[in-house]
UniProtKB/TrEMBL annotation:
4-aspartylphosphate: residues carrying this PTM: 55
Protein name listed in UniProt: DNA-binding NarL/FixJ family response regulator
Superkingdom, natural source: Bacteria
Domain HTH luxR-type: 145-210
Organism per entry: Limimaricola variabilis
Response regulatory domain residues: 4-119
Lineage: Bacteria, Pseudomonadati, Pseudomonadota, Alphaproteobacteria, Rhodobacterales
């Protein structure tokens, strides 16, 4: 069976060499060539290849391409062919849907053998990555620091949301059924928690943190 493949790499000479190496035995048919992530996604969608072989560092980003192609299901399998040995790049490529991560520099015959396995659904990660990637992917995700907005009580949040809309203390009090002096007291506490110098700065923090007005 001839394996239909799309090759994406922004270096024309290297891309041409890969295409020649794949097609010279008659086992592969290159149905499209791309020089950017956008082109790779478009060509994969048009040709529906067995394999999309993607470079990591092409314009638009190989990771973006593997994510889009995998999500659309426009290629049966996705493989990366790259010089990057960064653990994060390997892990991200696999997470986004690639089943093979191949380092440039291997021989043409090795590449063909790996890709024939990929066409059968066999995963491949260059041996030197196996243990490192497993360790990287098993690490617990770093927890993002808490936003000071999370420290607000429900009442303080209600008040700040009104202030972020541009309401005065009097208008906030009327909207929430409170005394104006009570709102002022709450605002003092809110600004303290947010380390805001005034109500305008507090409102800006609310807009940024809660995505208000987006």
């Amino acid at each position: 069976m001839t394996v239909r493949i799309v090759v994406a790499d922004d270096h024309p000479i290297f891309r041409a060499g890969v295409i020649t190496s794949l097609e010279e035995t008659g086992e592969f048919q290159v149905v499209g060539a791309a020089s950017s992530a956008e082109e790779a996604v478009q060509i994969a969608d048009q040709t529906r290849p067995d394999i999309a072989l993607l470079d990591l560092s092409m314009p638009g980003g190989g990771l973006a391409a593997v994510k889009a192609i995998s999500a659309a299901g426009s290629a049966t399998h996705v493989a990366m062919l790259t010089v990057s040995e960064e653990d994060e790049n390997v892990a991200s490529a696999l997470k986004f849907g690639a089943i093979a991560y191949i380092l440039k520099g291997i021989s043409a015959s090795e590449l063909r053998e790996i890709l024939k396995g990929v066409a059968r659904g066999e995963a491949h990660v260059s041996p030197q990555f196996a243990e490192r990637v497993l360790n990287y992917m098993s690490q617990p995700p770093q927890r993002a620091p808490n936003s000071p907005l999370e420290d607000l009580t429900k009442r303080e949040e209600d008040i700040l949301r009104c202030v972020a809309k541009g309401q005065s203390n009097k208008e906030v009090a009327e909207a929430l059924g409170l005394q104006e002096k009570t709102v002022k007291h709450y605002m003092t506490g809110i600004m303290g928690k947010l380390h805001a110098r005034n109500r305008v700065e507090a409102a800006l923090i609310a807009h940024e943190g809660w995505g208000l007005g987006e």
